[in-house]
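Render this sequence as a predicted structure.
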Amino acid sequence: MTISEDLAWRGLIKDKTFEDINWLNEPRTFYLGIDAASSDSLTVGNLAVLILAGRLIRAGWKGILLAGGATSLIGDPGGKEEERQLISREEIKRNVEGIKSQIEKVLTGIPHELLNNLDWTQDYKYLDFLRDIGKLYSMTELMQRDFVAERIGEGGRGISYAEFSYSLLQGYDFWWLFKNKGVVLQIGASDQWGNMLSGVPLIRKKENAQVQAFSMPLVINKLTGRKFGKSEEGAVWLEATKTTPFQFYQFWINISDADVEEYLKVFSMLVKEEIENTMNEFRQNPAARQAQKVLAYEVTKIVHGQDQAEKQRHTTEVLFSGEGISELDESKLATVREEFPNQKVPANSSIIEALTSTNLAQSNSEARRLLESGAIYINGQQINRENFEPGDFQNGRLLMRRGKAFKDSALIELI
């Protein structure tokens, strides 16, 4: 399968400046720019286009990943209803370093060049920029960009000259990379399409050369209609100190049946045959959630490495069944203690007290109701008594769960 066929099968081609997708089958040099104005970490929403970059590189393209140390000083207006708050140069520098580290991790073993556009922008004099770059842009064209029209149209909140000029900076990046690195293609998510178009006419006018751009669709949660990467608690980060590997794995294992096939295509490096086999197995027994298990493992492997993927898979399997809680070594047990409420109790102590102390129940009366209704499980087994028994503990510990939701669990250990 050619790279164009693969990308089309995965649903990864939305907007493009070239007519025939077979243009992608002749490897050259592309770049992907990443904003650093929001955080020192990327989210799973950013991950899709990073993996897209990896696919192109594996198909023979040379990839340049651009951390926007310069453009982040202005702030990307795309997809924003109001003006961004400027952050300090020092904070942007920290953000760039954090994002660079994550790019390197996601693209481990995939050759690429990592650059910062501040290196060629910071000494460019303003008057020179206006004469060399600004003179070649039509105000009519710029005013028609979606993010400008939305901000200055009826009900819009306006846009500053700085954010209005953002696309000129992005166009300049493309021109600089074309001249100095031979870049002929820019990729990105579809919410960046207006900015991505900035370099194409600039290079045509300055160099009498044709370059291209293409975007992938934004990934949308089908159940919520929200832009992918947001959970009820907020963003799902690639940085382990913001979203732990365990939480990261759980995010993917809880993906809905409606979304899982699309996400396997977008977020895993599995080939078509592997994905189709996974989905065939899934359809035969959806309750086993095999597709979600494969997805969680594959994406965790990309972001946190194979060792963490193996660890989180094993920990999840043991905890979900509850039957193998005694098998957890101290490292995996430490993960459980970090992620779940935990309590040390004497033998034959009260289950009701354990439920309230771990917040699985808000009161003694609620705890009794849960027990009477069969909503409490110990090591995967439904119980309705009010006290622990010695046989409940495996190697001095047990897993107590409220209802069917895996997240509503607590680790109980003997004193």
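Summary. The chain has 19 helices and twelve strands. The mean pLDDT is 91.
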